[in-house]
Write a structure and sequence with these properties.
The chain has eleven helices and three strands; from the N terminus they run E-H-H-H-E-H-H-H-E-H-H-H-H-H. With 310 residues, the protein is mainly alpha-helical. It is found in: Cell membrane.
C-alpha cells in the first residue's frame, strides 16, 4: 500500500455497449423514474386520505410505495446526469452510500414482501381472527423489524466491501456502485468479502422466499377448500398482485447475485429492469387489480379537480 495512492473517487462507466444511445437512455430513465414517483405517490395519497384503506394490507402497501420511491432514487439521478454529459465520477463516500442504500432498500423490500405474504395468509386462512392476529402492535413490530433488519444487513455488506483498500483501477463497469462491480477493484484478497456477501444475500433471499412459499402453500390449500366460487375468485384476485410483484422482485435478485458466471452487459440490463422498471410497475399492478384503490384514487382526483376549479 505504500507504493499506491488510495482511490478517492470512482468512474461510473454506465451501461456497457450503449455508446451513442445516451439520449434514448436518458428519456427511458427519466420517463420510468417520473412514472415511478407519480404512481407510488398516488397510492400513498389514496391510502393516507381514505379511512377505508387504513388496514394492515394497505399499511404494508404504503410502506412498499415508500421503498419504491427511494429505491430507484439511489441510482437513477446520477445515471441521468451522466447521460446528460455531466461528470461520471462519484466520490468514495458516494459510492459507499449507493451500495448501502441499494442493499438497505432492497432487503427491506424483500422482508416486506414476506410480511405481506403473512398478512394475506392471516386474512384468507383465519378470516374471523384476522383483526386480532394483525393488530396494530404486530404491524408496527413487523415494520420496525423490516427497517432495522435491513439496516443491519446493508451495514455488514458495506463494511465488508469498503474496509478493503482501493488503490486503482477505479472504473466501475456499471451505472451505479454494487458488490459485483466494486469488489473486483479492491487491491487485496476479496475471498472473505465475496463469501460473506454471497451467503448474506443468499440466506436472506432464501429464508424470505421459503416463508413466502409456506404462506402461499397454506393460502392455496385454504382457497381450494372454499365452497363459494366467488370467494375463491376474490381470494385469488387479492393474492395475484402480490405474487406478480414477488416474481418481478426475486427474478433479477437471483439472476444477479446467485449466478455462477456473470456478464456485465446482461447484468446491467437486468439491473435496469430491477431498479427502474419494476418500481414503476408495482403501482399499476396494485391499482389495476384493486377496486378499493381505484375508487379511492378516482374520488381523490375528482375532489382535487373540483377544488382547483373552485
Amino acid at each position: 500500500m505504500r507504493n499506491h495512492t488510495p482511490v478517492t473517487e470512482f468512474l461510473l462507466m454506465g451501461i456497457p455497449h450503449t455508446k451513442g444511445l445516451e439520449n434514448v437512455l436518458f428519456v427511458f430513465f427519466l420517463a420510468f423514474y417520473l412514472l415511478t414517483l407519480l404512481g407510488n405517490l398516488l397510492i400513498l395519497l389514496a391510502i393516507l386520505t381514505s379511512s377505508n384503506l387504513h388496514t394492515p394490507m394497505y399499511f404494508f402497501l404504503g410502506n412498499l410505495s415508500v421503498f419504491d420511491i427511494f429505491f430507484p432514487s439511489v441510482s437513477s439521478p446520477k445515471m441521468m446526469l451522466y447521460l446528460m454529459g455531466q461528470s461520471q465520477t462519484i466520490s468514495y463516500q458516494g459510492c459507499a452510500s449507493q451500495l448501502f442504500f441499494y442493499h438497505f432498500l432492497g432487503c427491506a423490500e424483500c422482508f416486506l414482501y414476506t410480511v405481506m405474504a403473512y398478512d394475506r395468509f392471516a386474512a384468507i386462512c383465519h378470516p374471523l381472527r384476522y383483526t386480532v392476529i394483525m393488530n396494530h402492535r404486530l404491524c408496527t413490530i413487523m415494520t420496525l423489524g423490516t427497517w432495522m433488519g435491513s439496516c443491519l444487513h446493508a451495514s455488514v455488506l458495506t463494511f465488508l466491501i469498503f474496509k478493503l483498500p482501493y488503490c486503482g483501477p477505479n472504473e466501475v463497469d456499471h451505472f451505479f456502485c454494487d458488490i459485483p462491480v466494486v469488489l473486483p477493484l479492491a487491491c487485496a484478497d476479496t475471498s472473505l468479502a465475496q463469501t460473506v456477501s454471497f451467503i448474506n444475500v443468499g440466506v436472506v433471499t432464501l429464508i424470505c422466499f421459503l416463508l413466502i412459499l409456506t404462506s402461499y402453500t397454506r393460502i392455496i390449500i385454504s382457497i381450494l377448500k372454499m365452497s363459494s366460487s366467488e370467494g375463491r375468485h376474490r381470494a385469488f384476485t387479492t393474492c395475484s398482485a402480490h405474487l406478480t410483484s414477488i416474481l418481478l422482485f426475486y427474478g433479477p435478485v437471483i439472476f444477479i447475485y446467485l449466478q455462477p458466471v456473470s456478464s456485465s452487459w446482461l447484468d446491467s440490463v437486468v439491473q435496469v429492469l430491477n431498479n427502474i422498471v419494476t418500481p414503476s410497475l408495482n403501482p399499476l399492478i396494485y391499482t389495476l387489480r384493486n377496486k378499493d384503490v381505484k375508487l379511492t384514487l378516482r374520488k381523490v382526483l375528482i375532489q382535487r379537480v373540483h377544488t382547483c376549479g373552485a
